[in-house]
């Protein structure tokens, strides 16, 4: 069986399980379950702490896993990213009190507090900065107020928490993170079971981004209509019983669907319908 690590809690957990369910895999009903066997799909799921997943995959104990890019890089494990999953996006940045520093190059001799010591240590080294790194498990924004550090490195969403703590963001982002699928570094990329899993996950991503659009249009307007709905290869165009009319079916980006419907209507299209896509293979 393919052995897959899945986050057991936190911001990665529910979106990962929802995506796996959409991809046709069984998922646990009880949060206390640590292992779930999906015999029909020949997969065994292991529900682990998100921070530990890269370690298990990197050791070769598990075949692939879902975790955050930040957690992967912080772990230092022999594992690599093979697919982006498009959820749990975050930005990792430095922050300090106003006037302390303007850029990472000025952190020399200072102490940086963070929950991602491995990631920050590497980033400072890559920038040639000699600074101490203190590992904290959470609430790192209080480290400066309590005198533990002069700088913090943490996940930033809106920046409100940092501003409320009297801090300002410094320099460029250390990392743009999101949920990713990982495997052990050096493992073969053509493993059929892994490739099937990736196709399923890619199918979910496509299904979430697109809708199926159907509409009727006069023959003389087909080319202009098809220019609005080109599909992935090309749309399906079928003649209707009434002469001079055709039915068109095409995949269109969900975010553009309403605008496309308006433009098709202005061209004379009628019976314009959109349908959600539950699964897809490209």
From TrEMBL:
It catalyses: 1-(5-phospho-beta-D-ribosyl)-ATP + diphosphate = 5-phospho-alpha-D-ribose 1-diphosphate + ATP. PANTHER family: ATP PHOSPHORIBOSYLTRANSFERASE, ATP PHOSPHORIBOSYLTRANSFERASE ATP-PRTASE. Residues 207-278 form the Histidine biosynthesis HisG C-terminal domain. It comes from Streptomyces violaceusniger. Feedback inhibited by histidine. Pathway: Amino-acid biosynthesis; L-histidine biosynthesis; L-histidine from 5-phospho-alpha-D-ribose 1-diphosphate: step 1/9. Keywords: Amino-acid biosynthesis, ATP-binding, Cytoplasm, Glycosyltransferase, Histidine biosynthesis, Magnesium, Metal-binding, Nucleotide-binding, Transferase. The gene is hisG. Belongs to the ATP phosphoribosyltransferase family. Long subfamily. The keyword Metal-binding applies. One of its GO terms (cellular component) is cytoplasm. It comes from the Bacteria. Its cofactor is Mg(2+). NCBIfam families: hisG, HisG_C-term. Its main location: cytoplasm. Catalyzes the condensation of ATP and 5-phosphoribose 1-diphosphate to form N'-(5'-phosphoribosyl)-ATP (PR-ATP). Has a crucial role in the pathway because the rate of histidine biosynthesis seems to be controlled primarily by regulation of HisG enzymatic activity. This is ATP phosphoribosyltransferase. It holds the Pfam family HisG. It is found in: Cytoplasm. Its EC number is 2.4.2.17. Residues 49-203 form the ATP phosphoribosyltransferase catalytic domain. One of its GO terms (molecular function) is ATP binding.
